Amino acid sequence: MAAGKEEVDYVRKNLIHADTVKKEQRYQKLHTEFSINPFRKLHVLPDKPMSRKPPEALLEDTTFIEAYRRVHMEPAKKYPAPITESQEIGWIAGPLIQENRQDPRFNFRRFKTDVTQNAAFFRRGLK
């Protein structure tokens, strides 16, 4: 070994490189589907008014229309389950049990007793 030169540790270099690649791949996401952004307005320019060329028949892009409709749907209709923790609150908007008006455990109707009738009569007299 020559003076002033250190020996290269290839195993350590490889470990550092592998760790760097893992960190990079943690934040990378592969996008394979590409579409038009439904939030951006498209400016369609018409032909010249005196043009003799017949207008081309344009076919509707049903995928774009469906994506546009899906963007404007409520999250409960878009996804089968809540995506974020904020969506968990209020995800199930309907009643959890069937409503039964005859069940006294859940239905507290107002009724008058002799004490409440007396208090109501007394309040009416003060006014």
Automatic annotation (TrEMBL):
InterPro entries: CFAP144 (IPR029214). Keywords: Cell projection, Cytoplasm, Cytoskeleton. Pfam families: FAM183. It is found in: Cell projection, Cilium; Cytoplasm, Cytoskeleton. PANTHER family: PROTEIN FAM183B. Belongs to the CFAP144 family. This is Family with sequence similarity 183 member A. It comes from Ilyodon furcidens. The lineage of its organism: Eukaryota, Metazoa, Chordata, Craniata, Vertebrata.
